[in-house]
Design a protein that fits this description.
Helix content is about 25%, strand content about 25%. The strands form three sheets. It has a seven-stranded mixed sheet, sandwiched between helices. The longest helix is centred in the middle third of the chain and has 14 residues. The radius of gyration is 19 Å and the shape is globular. The N and C termini lie far apart (about 40 Å).
């Protein structure tokens, strides 16, 4: 089974400039992603896709990693991650599986990748890393014109507000996405009706998108 890993690291970020190059514990987020993927020893090929010259220059430090310059058309703000992944795997159809590993999840380790991949290999259904919701999603409020309303059949409307009474729900944490290449080309989505999950702690599930996220990650690292 030939396994492919894709690490996406776009240059521009509206909420936190240059976040993929931020240093945590003396090592940039992009280097952490590369090293954890290599150390897992799962992948036959690892691809880093970026439009950032600073990141592309890392090819000198990682000669065994395939650095590719992202197309300008796929480096815009509103381009979805899945669009970039699909564009890349068109040239790697001979690989059996593809994993998406985002640099903004710095506490994902090689062991996490190995454990998630072990789950994936049980039935080859799409496998995602997840963590617990902080609060029951049934308590969500959605915008309704100029106001906000509880979602349909919300327990809030029945005065059922004890969070302990609700089944624990999970959310994707952005650290690991795994699919068969054939399935991803067919579904064009890592999210499908039936998936496996690999659960990670809330602490390890920090996804850096804002300065507050990064400050929290530094605090956790210490």
């Amino acid at each position: 089974m030939k396994n492919l890993a894709i690490i996406l690291a776009r240059k521009n970020s509206k909420r936190l400039k240059g976040k993929n190059n931020l240093s945590l514990g003396g090592k940039s987020l992009i280097k952490r992603a590369i090293e954890s993927s290599k150390k897992s020893k799962i992948y036959n090929k690892i691809i880093v896709s970026s439009d950032d010259p600073k990141i592309l220059k890392l090819s000198k430090n990682f000669p065994d990693i395939n650095f590719i310059k992202r197309k300008n058309s796929l480096a815009k703000d509103k381009i979805k991650v899945i669009s970039v992944v699909l564009d890349i795997i068109k040239d790697y159809k001979l690989y059996s599986s593809v994993s998406l590993l985002l640099p903004t999840c710095p506490f994902r380790t090689s062991q996490d990748i190995q454990k998630a991949f072990k789950i994936f290999k049980k039935n080859y259904k799409n496998t995602l890393s997840v963590t617990d919701y902080d609060f029951p999603p049934e308590f969500a409020l959605k915008k309704n014109g100029s106001f906000y309303s509880p979602i349909k059949d919300s327990p809030l409307l029945k005065n059922k507000t004890r969070s302990q009474e609700f089944i624990s729900s999970l959310r994707p944490n952005g650290a690991i996405y795994i699919s068969l290449v054939s399935n991803l080309l067919k579904n064009k989505n890592f999210y499908v009706r039936e998936m496996n999950v690999y659960k990670m702690s809330k602490t390890k599930s920090i996804d850096i998108d804002t300065k507050l996220d990064f400050d929290l990650a530094k605090l956790i690292y210490k």
